[in-house]
Amino acid sequence: MAYEHTIDTDGCKGCGLCVTVCPKNVLEISNDVNVKGYFPAYQARTEDCIFCAICCTMCPDVAITISEIEAEAAAPKQTEVEDE
Ligand code: SF4
Ligand code: SF4
Question: What is the CATH number of domain 2-74?
C-alpha cells in the first residue's frame, strides 16, 4: 500500500511547526500567501517523505493528512526511478 501526503494550504497558518519536526526535512514555508494571508507549508522534497505522520500529529490546525492510495497512483507517469 502506498500513501499520499496532503497539506490543506488554505487551512494552514504557516506556523512552521511541521517544518521543524519533520525528520526528513521535507517541508518548507511557501512564498505565496493563502486565502487567509498566511504563508503555508508545502512539500519541497516530496520524494524524501517517509509518511511517519509526525507533521500530522503536530499540526495545531489539522491541515496535514496522510491517506492510503493505490500503489499505481503513487508513481504517476514515472518510467524511471531516480536513485539518488
Ligand atoms: S510524514 Fe514525516 S517525513 Fe513526511 S513530511 Fe511529515 S514529518 Fe516529514
Ligand atoms: S503545522 Fe500545520 S498550520 Fe503549522 S505550518 Fe505546518 S501545516 Fe501549517
Answer: 3.30.70.20
